Known about the structure:
With about 350 residues, the protein is mainly beta. It has one helix and 27 strands.
Amino acid sequence: MRSISLILLVIVLLSGCKKDKSYFAWEKSYGIGEARYIKVTSDSGLIACGVSENQPYMLRLDENKMVVTEYKDEVTGVFTAVMYDTSGYVLAGSTDGKMLLIRLSKTGNKLWEKVSDPGFEVSQTQLLKLDNGNILAIGSASPDTSYNVQTGLLFMSFDTTGLVIDEQQYISGFHIASYQAAVDNSDNIYLALTRKEDLKEPKASVAKFNSSIQRIWEVELSNNPDYGAAALAVILDGSEVYVAGRTELPKEGGGVINNSFISSLTDGGSLKWKKYPENSNSGTGLIINSAGELVLLNKNCFIISLLDPDNGADGGRVRMFDVCDPYNTDAIASCFDIDFNNDFVLAGSLGGRFYIAVKAME
């Protein structure tokens, strides 16, 4: 009887030491850092960028996940967006608090580089393709920046030769940051915004600007002025605008905890609904899938929430690991896409490393 008890004890101890298992069809890390952006290419490959070993880093993989192009710049900084076509690459990011733009040939040779200092912090840059073929770069501080300095938004439109068509700054209030943007067919720009005024909690909002960078409307998405919030993702689907991010909620026993949120608005700025899918999390990416579902990527543990775009009703959840605690994890998602097989393609960091993966749909 005593020997049976010892055997049972050993089994329990071994089961408690079970290593976390991932449900990815393919995954790989590329050095210390973080993948900030990922996109499926027209040839069924992947392109991703971010920071590796404290330097801006980009790689493109073919459909077999073999490296086609790999580029690491010599400066300290990060790439936060990339555009690719058969003529080459346009990379955007930040170095030394300034906007960084780089053009590469299709073989990965640097053709030109621009560094722009607007006089306020730029820690990330987004890229939007305009209707006339030009590119709009939007430079911003991070929503997680310490709120002790004036910030703004830098808008720069340019072509692939590096010619700057227009450059404008937008400063409104003390701290403003845009983590993600979207553009419609009329070149109206929709920004997921985080604002912070002195001695107040940060607030989440979404704003629409016209092509001349004039604000048409802005809607605040924060519910309680005693708790902070940040808007981190925005997409358009026809006349619908979807925004996601995080909001603080009181925690049992004191303190606060982040909760992911997602909101639906009309393109005229009318709020339709708002939901809170995941505790201890932040909404960091949005996509409409081929089934018409609204898909939300949550930052901690790469958890995906599925929702009905009409009313926000819960459509289920997709987990990437059999064991992952969003309250305490080093599995941090940044961006995602859906490939031609309807599989999820994800970017972020795992164990502090630049990490990309493919999750096959079951």
